[in-house]
Amino acid sequence: MNTSIHTENLTRKFGEFVAVDRVNISVGSGEIFGFLGPNGAGKTTVIRMLCGLLKPTAGKATVAGFDVYTQSELIKQNIGYMSQKFSLYDDLSVGENFEFYAGVYGLGAGEIAEKRREILGRFGLEAYGSAVTRDLPLGFKQRLALGCAVLHEPRILFLDEPTSGVDPKARREFWKTIHDTAAGGTTVFVTTHYMEEAEYCHRVSIIDGGVIVALDTPGRLKESHGKESVQDVFVDIVGSD
Amino acid sequence: MNAIEITDFRKEYGTTVAVRGISLSVREGELFGLIGPDGSGKTTTMRAVCTLLVPDAGTILVQGLDTSRDVMRIRAVLGYMPQRFSLYQDLSVEQNLRFFADLFRVPPAERLEREEQLYRFSRLSEFKKRKAAALSGGMKQKLALSCALVHTPRVLVLDEPTTGVDPVSRREFWDILRSIQKQGTTILVSTAYLDEADRCDRVALMYRGRVVVSGAPSSVREGFSYPLYRLKGKDVRALQAQFAAAAETRTTQLFGDALHVVFNVEPSESRWAEWRATSAGNLETWGRQPPSIEDVFMDLMSTQDEGAPGAAPAGARS
Questions:
Q1: What ipTM, to 2 d.p.?
Q2: Does domain B225-290 have CATH number 3.40.50.12640?
Q3: Would you call A199 and B256 a contact, using CB atoms and an 8 Å cutoff?
Q4: In what order do the strands lie in the sheet with B258-263?
């Protein structure tokens, strides 16, 4: 398995405050890597560094083989990003939002039409092409935002709490889409506060106070902590301070 | 007298019917949960309870006062935290909390203890001097919670307060809600985390503007009469495909590393043996298990969808 994301002692300070402290992770291509941790643990700071949006204070990191210090533009061309505050235009239709993003990513007219058919179909949105985005249920908006994040076929997809506030049924549908995307070879780096979703990842890490405190498959984490669920492992590790 | 009495409440937005005539009672001192998918009418119902929108039909009473007439008297006894709570971004954590304490006239004698309690739960004490704009998403949510709780209102309405909050902080938050309830406050709360439903005295499941089921979490679970099995195997997604196609199956749902299958009838031993053989070693363990609120919710939603031709989600236009 090729390495998609690799960090060595990745560190970021804000003044005296160490937000991310010597983080070592290695994520293979096509892997779904869950990045868990309490609010304020440093998750978003790590993602911003890996996306080339924030320079590390110390340590190394490569994403899709590119260096985060010197090749951030190349990184941006090879990744997709979606957060809980996904940016869709509420007053545009589903199709118009999609075409807007396709234009931003530099797709040609013929390519846009083809991609639109393919992605709206894959994400179960084909019947909603002319629906105004504002009127869509949150779960549908989330799938559209994901569709817009993958239309340029990124090798790595960063999802920062993509299912926050979405109901259990829509969340399961969203995760099916994530699995399909990863099965196509895309690496998925995802944060969530829904611990049962951590069980859908190939491997998960837990970051607390900027430090990685656990990293393994969900099965081995549960086994080594003698717990029935990742939720219990998380509370065991993070709740003990 | 009930703290909140909703009778035949109906609300439409243009051609979309948000709430289709629901009736609910929240008892004095109760912790009542509203559960349902996005667009099911939870927020509309909560906003009407808070006098922020007028019913198209039906009545809502809060502490015996009518939300269409006694607006100011209701607002004096009510606390509301909407999904998007507005904090003052250029004020510090401490200043935001004091602003809301001033606004809601929290007596100086109670203020310190209250603030300390809220800092303990939110773990924000070391960030007292930080501006709200510089807080992480989760910390902002916790500060907003603290501001809504600062005056210990008689009736507290919270619209998905724990969305985006980590599991440890969520537990702490529910402990705080319990302590507020012990002081006599009635709480109406909505949530997207169904494990939180079990922390409520009673819950109502809303779907497409209707209350589908309501009652104590235990009675909602016990009212679910279909046999539910928890299955484990090497590849649960393949298991799901296999069991979704079985004739006895009512619904299937992934639950982390396990698959939950609800059957219409209890499967026989020989059927299990058959399924195990068909799975070619994938099906490893199975066992009957009592349903959780999430099981009941998922089953009700899936079967209601089947009954609706076209099953377009509420609000979608095509």
A1: 0.79
A2: no
A3: yes
A4: B249-255, B258-263, B228-233, B283-288
Residue boundaries of the structural domains of chain B: 4-221, 225-290
The count of structural domains within chain A is 1
Domain range for A21 is 3-87+156-238
List residues of chain A with CB under 8 Å from any CB of chain B.
37-40, 44, 84, 127-132, 135-140, 161, 164-170, 172, 175, 179, 193-196, 198-200, 218-219, 229-231, 234-235, 238-239
A135 within domain boundaries: no
Q: Which residues of A are less than 8 Å from B312 in CB distance?
A: 127
Q: Single out the residue of A175, A168, A144 nearest to residue A32, CA to CA.
A: A175
Residue B146 token pair: 């603290």
Q: What H or E segment, with its residue span, contains residue B241?
A: helix B236-244
In a domain, A28, yes or no: yes
Query: Parallel, antiparallel, or unpaired for β A66-67 and A211-216?
Result: unpaired
- Token pair listed for B190: 């909505």
**Helices vs. strands in chain A: H and E counts, helices first:** 9, 11
CATH of domain B4-221: 3.40.50.300
Q: Which domain CATH number covers A14?
A: 3.40.50.300
Q: ∠A136-A142-A147 over CA atoms, to 5°? A: 105
pLDDT score recorded for residue A139: 82
CB–CB of B137 and A84 under 8 A? yes
Residue B234 token pair:
């090497």
A8 is a domain residue: yes
Are A38 and B138 within 8 A, CB to CB?
yes
Give the CB-side neighbour count of residue A208, counting CA atoms within 13 A. 16
Of B163, B255, B314, the CB nearest to A196: B255
Distance of CA A62 to the CA centre of its chain: 16
Q: Quick check: do B4-221 and B225-290 share a fold?
A: no
Give A132's contacts in chain B (Cβ within 8 Å). Answer: 317
pLDDT tens-digit series, residues B83-137: 877 788 899 999 999 998 998 888 888 899 889 988 987 778 999 999 998 887 6
Residue A156 has pLDDT above 60, yes or no: yes
For residue B186, give both structure tokens.
């009635």
